[in-house]
Backbone:
């Protein structure tokens, strides 16, 4: 979904897509238009600058940025746009994502990145958090988000099968 995107979903590498597709799926289920791009802070720095600088004028209301290892992508994007950045630490091979988590969450004061859990849970929750942000000014989306949560509650069995 790319038309009139309100959420930007970016990741540092194709290898992050297995994680970040869960954010895309969640946005799809909630009917939130979004754009998906690979933007690497170190491999495509010019693309990063163009993306971040143009984010507000394209109408993005939040950017979900997933990265692994030395995960400077969310922080660099946050430095170049006033649009809120939601960081998702991708599980890395060497340190299981602890490196990703610390390098996203430990932003110096002044340039915030809202940081979520490592991996799939973080990708889903970043999308739900972005939805909650938009729902404040979008009653129809607020209704869909309520329905999503009700369905999640109904899916919990009383006892294990
Ligand atoms: C980061 O390096 C990406 O976000 C990815 O998680 C990690 C490894 O990238 P690849 O070597 O798999 O392309 O930039």
Residues:
């Amino acid at each position: 979904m790319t038309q009139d995107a309100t959420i930007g979903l970016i990741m540092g590498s194709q290898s992050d897509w297995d994680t970040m597709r869960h954010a895309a799926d969640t946005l799809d289920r909630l009917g939130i238009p979004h754009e998906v791009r690979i933007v690497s802070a170190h491999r495509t720095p010019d693309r990063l600058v163009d993306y971040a600088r143009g984010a507000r004028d394209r109408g993005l209301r939040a950017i979900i940025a997933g990265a692994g290892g030395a995960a400077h992508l969310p922080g660099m994007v946050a430095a170049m746009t006033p649009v809120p950045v939601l960081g998702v630490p991708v599980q890395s091979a060497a340190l299981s994502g602890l490196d990703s988590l610390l390098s996203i969450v430990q932003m110096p004061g002044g340039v915030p990145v809202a940081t979520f859990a490592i991996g799939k849970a973080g990708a889903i929750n970043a999308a739900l958090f972005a939805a909650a942000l938009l729902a404040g000014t979008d009653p129809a989306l607020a209704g869909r988000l309520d329905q999503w949560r009700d369905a999640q509650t109904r899916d919990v069995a009383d006892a294990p099968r």
User: Anything to note?
Assistant: The first strand starts at residue 7 and ends at 11.
